[in-house]
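Q: Convert this sequence to structure tokens.
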Amino acid sequence: MKKISEDNILDRIYKIETNYVKELREFKAYINNTGDDLSVILKSHLFVEILINRIILLVIPHPKRIEDQRFSEKIKLLSDLDYFPHGWELYEKLNALNKIRNGFAHNYKNEIDRKHLETLSGCLKKTLSPIERFKIGSEILMNSLLFTIELCTLFPFIQSCSINAKLFRRDPGFTPEMISQYPQELLDCFYKHKYS
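A:
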């Protein structure tokens, strides 16, 4: 029976990370060469929504029902389902990004709201311009979303178990050790049927 080796897993992680790092680097280069704040904000929001849609495709059984929803509804759903690392904090940052974007989408002369910028960029130096703080805060947000995509791509079962642990605890026959046993049992079963 063939087992997944550590090298195989590391190779998969490397390939996924290489693709996402390249994509993020290209996006950063594009944003850094964009001269106006409006484009930076709208394009950053668009890129984040693309990442949110990728997560939805990975974790929601019927993604078509969700993909056409508003950004705020998508992030609320993923937050309610515990699919964000750092949970509520990431949701608040996504919500702040959305509010900043909405402010600019409806008034091109708008300025970045300080309260929302604080939520998005956290403790970044106040000496940076608002748009620089926005760019850095958005990049941190994008990295968190890319990390979530990697987890869901590489370890969907483990990610699902981790997220549903609260639900599993309601089962009187459940023990925490069961989660660590399931992935190997599933892999053994998968390889047995695939390669026998």
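Residues 6-32 form the longest helix (27 residues).
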